[in-house]
Amino acid sequence: MSLAYDENTVLTPDQVKALELYEEGSTKESTGLMSDAIFCYSRALRLYDNVERLYRKKLNYEYQKELASREPIVTTTAKLKNLNLNNNDGEENEQNTKEDEEEFVTQLDPCWLLEILSDDILVEIISILILKDPFAHISLSHTCKKLSQLSFNSSAYKQLCKIIYPKQVYSESALELNDITKNQDRMVKNWDFNWELMLNDRPFIKYHGLYISKVTYISEGARESSFYAPVKLVTYFRYLRFYPDGTVFKLTTTDEPNQIVPQFSRENQPHLKNSFISRFQLEMDGQILIKRESEDYNFLEELEIVSLGYRKFHRLNWISSSYINEDGEKGYFTLKKEKPFNFSGVKAYHKI
Asked: Which keywords annotate this record (predicted)?
């Protein structure tokens, strides 16, 4: 018999070996070595068929042990209770009640900004912040309930609409059929002069960041025997960055976002392999058509702007990916392995 990870659990040698193999498989899986991971899992299950439950029990034990070793968090109120507050005569004051402590804590950090400035001044500050730094505007709205309400009042929605929609690049048919104009005071009539409703209902492309699609799938290798076939986990990324002049910068690579984002601009296109500069057009219903021409083919990609929970127009879903050859024949690429694009804001991109 062999002791396991705590003094109350006793494991057999087979269980210990199975647990070690399962841990090794988990490590290999996290590094992308799926073939080796599956091999380790199979050996572990042959030794002990309930090894997964054993592994989870060990993880839980280690987590609880780590929590117990952490220092407790001391709140401000608890710290005040430990203070030795003296009166003017130097004698210990033993009459600090709970109400006194709470009143003292409340007075530690008053929100002077909200106390001193009127709502009109705060709204003016917010309007400047929307222009200067959209990310700071969002952060400010998260600080308290009052600033959240002021950050997204009717004037803020109006300002956001006038910033966002004139930069959208619509197709000629969309411009004609929907009478689209850069004058948003005219456009808002279609939403009963409700700026908030227009912003929430009318899809738009975001320029202060990029859209990222992470594609992951398992590829099987050549079968070496009737019982064992090697597999590998394939992961790559698709990046899209739109510009208000109607161009979109595209890249397909295995490099992680932290490597690509700092250098992902069309000016660096010659230095990024498998990158292309294409043209795009937006329809009123949120469909995006991306076109790229080469010597022999014209490539067309159709995407749809959708919301993701409370994040408005955050995702691009695939509709189709096709090509037209020099003879005018059209073919389609499979989208079986493709994943949607999710928007990621980049502070350095918002001034373009």
From this structure: Ubl conjugation pathway
